[in-house]
Amino acid sequence: MAIQPPRGTYDIVPGETRKWQALEALLCPVVSAAGYKEIRTPVFEHTELFKRGVGETTDIVNKEMYTFADKSERSLTLRPEGTAGVVRAYLSHGLSRQSPPVKLWYMGPMFRYERTQTGRQRQFHQIGIEAFGSEGPAIDAEVIVVAVDCMAAVGVKNFQVHLNSIGCRQCRPRFREILKEAIASKRQYLCQDCQDRFERNPLRMLDCKSPACQEHYQGAPASLDNLCPDCLSHWQGLLSLLAELGVAVVINERLVRGLDYYGRTVFELIADDTRLGVQSTICAGGRYDYLVETLGGPPTPAVGWAAGLERISLLMEPAQAETPLTFVVCPSAPAALKLACAVRRAGFSCELDFPPQGGSPRGFARQLQQANKTGAAWSLIQGEDELQGGEVTVKSMKDGSQARIPVEKLIAFLQENCRNGV
RNA sequence: GCAGGUGUCGCCAAGCGGUUAAGGCCCCGGAUUGUGGUUCCGGUAUUCGGGGGUUCGAGUCCCCUCAUCUGCCCCA
Fold it and tell me: Closest Cα to residue A129, out of A174, A83, A185?
């Protein structure tokens, strides 16, 4: 084939759209039940929003953004994640003046200029929730439980909840220094990336994938041991709430997260499944108490997460094909369409035959063959005879039994014999 | 940005320098112009991702390019 979609993008074709519809249908009730309201924001924003929101030092901003100038030379960027835009909208619409907490959810495409591989593409989809205005650990716990419930709703089972606290404005700078001091003597043995991180973002050293680096970090100080009293009590409060709620967590003091705006609680849902390729994180989030302020709003504590729908989709079974309930078999195109429309308006799905390109109308047997191919449960046969007498023959495609009834009784017949529409 | 793998019909796939490019599925048509699912018959690639080159001759060898996959980095 000559014509391809751009690298990293893909079409969701009819065989797969059902799965996506199912994903949305399954997830939406979970977040709604928890009181989150859907918000839809633009897929592109001012570049500056992401630079300030996500952080200048992050890879996302440095090398992964789809940035372009519009015809008025404004610098715009296809959103690489959802939180910055949601916070912007939250401020744009004065939602910060609503009684807290303000709880929002979103779902849609995100864009990151990366090399593609299993579980990673340039246009991908996320669902996420954000809770603004509550500081206590209870809202952290709720947010995490909603994530766990979402996985249950879509049938994803093999995952762990990794959890950590990386401290706040008070204690993080101090911890950063403690960490640097502890590592300083080993600095020359670290990988190049970690040597850079040492200056720019020391915490990121801790989740380096290099086994050699990890060796050197054995026994390195953990943020959990260096929390200020407030952060410590928040952390302990969260742990006991999650225990109370029966959410098993793995305390992972190496968990840091890539985005600058996180503080205190950070967590990831990590799946163990080869279908994800080398990827494993299906949902990630945390607290970002300074982001609203950073973007020009009032100081507002906030916590949320985003989950990758493609990755979740990889863990789900293929959806069942869609099949019409009935299929009209009739030599007269106008009569066939008329009958099909009547059936459809009564709430039953109905298909009929259309001649292929360059072909002549299909004969009786061929139309029945089409009916069979679509998987229809019933054929509504209206040949010359039936048309004459204002009748229709209803044939079960399952057992071949059939009955000839007046057309007026067709809807009643379907209502009686076919329970749930479809 | 880096490292490997792959690219022959809508899908799977043979072919590995020599006249007209297997096969299967799907699709289309017929056997069967009022009864499907089985079966049988027939049809569908001037062309092998694209461009150069080597050769009497290339899908088959070489070079470049594009796309795709897997991994690194990073992330959902």
Answer: A83
| Nearest by Cα to A205 from A180, A232, A224 | A180
Query: What is the rounded distance in angstroms from the CA atom of residue A214 to the CA atom of residue A184?
Result: 15
pLDDT of residue A1: 41
Each residue's pLDDT tens digit, A116-133? 899 999 999 999 999 999
Measured in residues, chain A has a length of 422
Do A342 and A411 contact (CB within 8 A), yes or no? Answer: yes
Q: Å from A3 (CA) to B71 (C1')?
A: 26
B strand bases under 7 Å from protein CB: 1-3, 10-11, 27-30, 32-37, 49, 67-76
| Helix, strand, coil % in chain A, rounded to nearest 5 | 40, 20, 35
Q: How far from chain centre, in Å, is Cα A410? A: 42
Rounded to whole angstroms, the distance from the CA of residue A90 to the C1' of nucleotide B17 is: 68
CB proximity list for A205: less than 8 A, separation 6 or greater: A179, A183, A190, A194, A197, A198, A213, A217
Residue A386 DSSP class: H
Could you tell me which residues come within 8 angstroms of residue A148 by beta carbon, excluding any fewer than 6 positions away? A161, A247, A269
Consecutive 10-residue averages of pLDDT for chain A (422 residues):
76 87 95 97 95 85 88 94 96 94 96 91 95 96 98 94 93 88 83 80 80 79 92 97 97 83 92 90 95 94 96 88 91 93 95 82 90 93 92 93 94 84 44
Alpha helices in A14-126, H assignment, sequence order: 14-33, 47-54, 59-63, 83-92
Q: What is the pLDDT of residue A288?
A: 95
Instruction: Output the pTM of the full model.
Output: 0.90
Instruction: Output the six-digit token pair for A339.
Output: 């009958």
- Tell me what pLDDT residue A48 has: 94
3-state secondary structure (DSSP) of residue A103: strand
Q: Which two tokens stand for residue A231?
A: 């952060």
